[in-house]
Amino acid sequence: DTAVSQTPKYLVTQMGNDKSIKCEQNLGHDTMYWYKQDSKKFLKIMFSYNNKELIINETVPNRFSPKSPDKAHLNLHINSLELGDSAVYFCASSPWEGQGGEKLFFGSGTQLSVL
Amino acid sequence: AQSVTQLDSQVPVFEEAPVELRCNYSSSVSVYLFWYVQYPNQGLQLLLKYLSGSTLVKGINGFEAEFNKSQTSFHLRKPSVHISDTAEYFCALKSNYGQNFVFGPGTRLSVLP
Question: Above 80 in pLDDT, residue A96?
Answer without folding.
Answer: no
